[in-house]
Each structure stands twice: as structure tokens, then as C-alpha cells.
Amino acid sequence: IDQPQVLSEREVASIERQQTAMSAPKAKVAVLGAGGGIGQPLAMLMKMNPLVSDLSLYDVVGTPGVAADLAHIDTAAKVTCATGPEELSKALYGCHLVIIPAGVPRKPGMTRDDLFNINAGIVQGLCEGISKYCPKAWVAIISNPVNSTVPIAAEVFKKAGTYDAKKLLGVSKLDVCRAKAFWAELAGVIPAKVDVPVVGGHAGVTILPLLSQATPKVDLAKDKAKALMERIQNAGTEVVEAKAGKGSATLSMAYAAAEFGNSCLRAMAGESNITECAYIESNVTDLPFFATKVTLGPDGVQDVGSLGRLNELEQENLEALKAELRGSIQKGIDFVASGK
Ligand code: NAD
Ligand code: LMR
């Protein structure tokens, strides 16, 4: 007699995920900057996502090659490509999720803010397109400096009358990936068993990992916690220096953005309890934008998590990051107001 098969919790969760994927409405996802170091692997990972029905690749150069290459992967997502501003409407029309890794990356010695002069205008132009051609889409911004480019996007959408704060998300997930990877090493467990909230912004001291809230708990002396916090804050620079002039994190960023994009699509499809850390318009602190853990729902951010209890080191860092983050936010707002 056949024994009834008992499924593990993990197997049940996997079947439920597959069922959700199969019954979910399929989405059109655009990657703007699809020819770049992040854009290409991100586009590949989104091509492999069963929630994506249409994958729209946009860049100012190089999209036909990337699209032809990805179109030969035997997954369902249909790949289309568009090149240059005159084809932006085609890229964006009907999109549910737009992910933006367009713009220049850092070289050694630069700060993310040094990218502002070039990337601010790029993000502004792309967001003007979004407000015209897919004003209801979720928008995930990767282009640096994220602390300023997200406020830029918000101002562009406000000007166009299409702003929905719940659907504008700055992608700070790479900070969480790094924090989890480093914490897992320390705790001696696999990263999937780890949770580390990272709040604040996405540049240097504005990146605030809340190690006192990390699980599993590890007892760390204050100097060790400070060193780990600083490693997470400087992890982007660690990659920039290792690449020695050939750009910044691309593969880990593509992974982080693909996971983040997947969370957005699952929430859009009606799955509940989807949480991510994201840099959003917020009233958790006295700053107008701030990254915290959020719960995503079908219409975007549903709940914004509180900061919880901070230890002394984290409290000091929170106070110290405010001036820089406030300045970066205002710089973005002023850029759009100046009409440049
Ligand atoms: P890259 O130079 O390899 O690629 C950028 C791509 O953007 C290029 O293909 C370029 O042609 C394209 N582009 C330029 N102007 C454009 C426009 N107007 N419209 C569409 N596409 C345009 O750079 P990358 O390594 O992919 O990095 C891209 C951005 O992502 C940088 O600003 C970098 O600092 C940022 N970044 C952010 C994070 C994060 O955690 N948020 C992590 C890594 C990198
Ligand atoms: C990162 O954190 O890797 C990115 O913001 C890229 C950079 O310039 O460090």
C-alpha cells in the first residue's frame, strides 16, 4: 500500500509559490540601462522569472545585441528592445514594473554624490517618460546617488501629477545582501537563515545596519560591531577599489535587484507578507526619505516598519547620518526645481 506522501514545510511553500506564479497575472517589466554592467545580468535574471510575461530592454546603446542574446533563453518572457529617447515610449508602454540601473558608475576615489551631475539628468529624463507612458508602474531606482535620485524621481512625478509614493522605491537591497552575507559568516549559518535590517540611505555613513536586531543573535563587543557596521557601509567602495577603474558592483547588484523585483511582482500578484528594505518617502524619522523594512502589497508599499529599539552605537550613527541624508535629498529636490 502506498504511504501518503508527507511534504516538508519547505516543499509546501515551494508548491504554493509555483501555484502563485502559475495563477498570477503576468507582468511587463522594463530595465532602463539594460546594456550596462548591471542591466545585462539583471535582464537575464528577469528573463528567468516566471512572473514576467514581457521583458522590455531599453538603453541609449547596445540593446539589440542584449535582446537577441536573451531571446534565445527558453523561458516564457517575451523580450523586446528599444534604443534611444525616440523609442522610450515603446519601451515603457504598458509596464507594471520599471527598474532603473541607467547611469555612470564610480571609479576609485569618487563618492556616489560625484555621479550626481550626470545621473540626475538621466533619471529625470527617464522618469518624465514613465510619467507619460506608464504612470501607474512601480519604479525601482538603482542609479546613484540613490539618496538623491529617488527624490528627483518623486519631484518629476509630482510635476507631472502622477506621483504615487507607494510605488517609488529606492533599491537599497544590496546593503541588506551584504549585511546578511557578512553576518552569516560570523554566526556560522547559511545566509538564508539570517535577517539584518539596514535602514537610512544608500551611501557611506547613511547606510545604517541594525546589527542589534540581526538574527540569529551574535554577542558582539562594541568595537567589533562598529567594525562590521563600517565594513557594510564601505562595501560598495571595496568593490570599486577591487575593480580598479572598471566600475562598481554589477553582479551582486543584479542579483539584489532581481530578488527585489521578484518581491515587487509577487506582491503585485497578491501574495501577502512580502517584506523588503527600501528607500522610500517616509515619516519614520524627520527626514522626508528614509530606508526601512516595508511590507509590499498589491498597490505598492502597504506598511512601513518602525525602527525598533536601537542600541547606543546605532543611535549615534542615526543622528550622525541625518545631516548628509537631508542634504542629498534637498539636492535632488532643488535639481528638479531649478529646471536644469
Ligand atoms: P554601466 O556604465 O555599466 O551601465 C550603465 C548603462 O546605462 C549603460 O549601458 C549606459 O548606456 C546606460 N545609460 C546611460 N544613459 C542612459 C539613458 N539616458 N537612458 C538609458 N540608459 C542609459 O554602469 P553600471 O555598473 O550598470 O551602474 C549603473 C548605475 O547603478 C550607476 O549609477 C551605479 O552607481 C549604480 N549602482 C547602484 C547600486 C545600488 O545599490 N543602488 C549598486 C551598484 C551600482
Ligand atoms: C554599491 O553600493 O555597490 C553601489 O552603490 C555602487 C557604488 O558606487 O558603490
TrEMBL record:
GO terms for biological process: carboxylic acid metabolic process; tricarboxylic acid cycle. It comes from Apatococcus lobatus. This is malate dehydrogenase. Keywords: NAD, Oxidoreductase, Tricarboxylic acid cycle. GO terms for molecular function: L-malate dehydrogenase (NAD+) activity. Substrate binds at R106, R112, N144, R178. SUPFAM superfamilies: LDH C-terminal domain-like, NAD(P)-binding Rossmann-fold domains. GO terms for cellular component: chloroplast.
